[in-house]
Amino acid sequence: MLLISQLNTAPLAAQPATGPGRLAGFADVADLTLAAPMIVRATITRASAAPARTAGVAPAGRVRLTVTAAVSNPLLAPGPIAATLSFLWDAPIDARARVPNVKAMEILAFLGPPDASGATRLISSRAVQPWDPALADQVRAILAENRTGTVPVINGVTSGFRADGTIPGESESQFFLTSRDGRPVMLVVQNRPGEVRRVLVARGDIIDESAERVRPNTLLWYRLACFLPATLPAAAGGTDPALARDWRDALASLGPCGRTG
Question: Does one domain contain both 43 and 101?
């Protein structure tokens, strides 16, 4: 048995997966990482066509395989797991409509909790990825950040206000965000002439030295860029043109979420 501590208990999407479809960016990786109860590095040791009468039919251009994989390194697991796992995978067929040869393929798999025999299921259509050390490092970094519990899960924005500075072109806008745990979170946009716009996040009701810049490709960036509304709601101050513009500018500074799944 392999042992790793439980880090995440997100709900499981129950379906065979289609792939591999390469992940396009950080948001795709974060989506899978935060949804998966189990993530493992493994090597496919056996793959055979799954019987349609019990496993169903794969989408066009795919073949449904029953895969057995030997786990070499669990990145995340709900507890002790078997050294060998099995799951259904809708693998792409080649140009000659032949079943792909995936034996000995090294993969990074995002899975649901296994039963005692090691049977499990992939959590999405892209839950099998070719093994890539850089991808694994990104997954580990997301898990480590999430484990701290300090990065808020953002639900939306409730209100905002804007104050002009003492010189032309200087301003500060503050937007009050809602979070899953109810703790206050503030998005701050500071504009100063001749300087790059600053977008900060404060974890309380006041802005002090603990307010931090939002760094790209971090869990905080993901939860802001991918879950905040593109336009400031009217109830949160969106009818104020200057405040609404600062909101748009803040999201532009964060950059697009980039989710493709």
Answer: yes
**pTM listed for this prediction:** 0.84
What digits encode the pLDDT tens for the residues 147-175? Answer: 999 899 999 999 999 999 889 989 999 99
For residues 128 and 122, the answer to whether their CB atoms sit within 8 Å is: yes
d(CA 211, CA 224): 15
Dump the DSSP string for 12-74: PP-S-EE------SHHHHHHHHHH-SEEEEEEEEEEEEPPHHHH--PPTTEEEEEEEEEEEEE
137 and 23 in one domain? yes
* SS3 of residue 221 by DSSP: helix
Length of the chain: 261
C-beta atoms surrounding 67 within 10 Å: 24
Query: What distance in Å separates the CA atoms of residue 56 and residue 257, rounded to the nearest whole number?
Result: 34
- Contact 131/107 with Cβ under 8 angstroms? yes
What domain range includes position 180? 154-254
Residues 67/48, Cβ–Cβ less than 8 Å: no
C-alpha distances out from residue 244 to 70, 161, 171, 222, 233, Å: 53, 10, 13, 21, 9
Per the CB < 8 A criterion, the answer to whether 20 and 110 are in contact is no
Residues of the chain with pLDDT under 50: 1-15, 17-19
